[in-house]
Amino acid sequence: MSYAVIKTGGKQYRVQQGDVLRVELLDAEEGANVSFDQVLLVGSGDSVNVGAPTVAGATVSATVRRHGRADKVRIIKFRRRKHHKKQMGHRQHFTEVEITGINA
């Protein structure tokens, strides 16, 4: 089974064909095909091809399943005995993609 390490949204993911993962929000419609061209590593069995910094000509194709927002993260800053308390919340947007192929 071949695998690859891709970079998108400032993060790196190890993916295989059939994987479903959440990445930073992509500008694509649901059901559309997207291609990740920043492939840092491609592996198949014992052979590993490491890019410098990316593998030339390698792409990973995926299908957009849905867009959404993650659970709320609560940020609380509290100073005891100082009459200071600050609360904030944040919900990050994401795109859920299914990996359909690895082209090395």
UniProtKB/TrEMBL annotation:
Statement: the UniProt record of this protein carries the keyword Ribonucleoprotein: yes
Record keywords: Ribonucleoprotein, Ribosomal protein, RNA-binding, rRNA-binding
One cellular component term from this protein's GO annotations in UniProt: ribosome
Keyword rRNA-binding: yes
SUPFAM superfamilies tied to this protein: L21p-like
InterPro entries reported for this sequence: bL21-like, bL21-like_sf, Ribosomal_bL21, Ribosomal_bL21_CS
HAMAP family linked to this entry: Ribosomal_bL21 (MF_01363)
Family: Belongs to the bacterial ribosomal protein bL21 family.
Functional note: This protein binds to 23S rRNA in the presence of protein L20.
Classification via PANTHER family: 50S RIBOSOMAL PROTEIN L21 (PTHR21349), LARGE RIBOSOMAL SUBUNIT PROTEIN BL21M (PTHR21349:SF0)
Assembly with partners or alone: Part of the 50S ribosomal subunit. Contacts protein L20.
Record-given protein name: Large ribosomal subunit protein bL21
Species: Fulvimonas yonginensis
Lineage: Bacteria, Pseudomonadati, Pseudomonadota, Gammaproteobacteria, Lysobacterales
Protein encoded by which gene: rplU
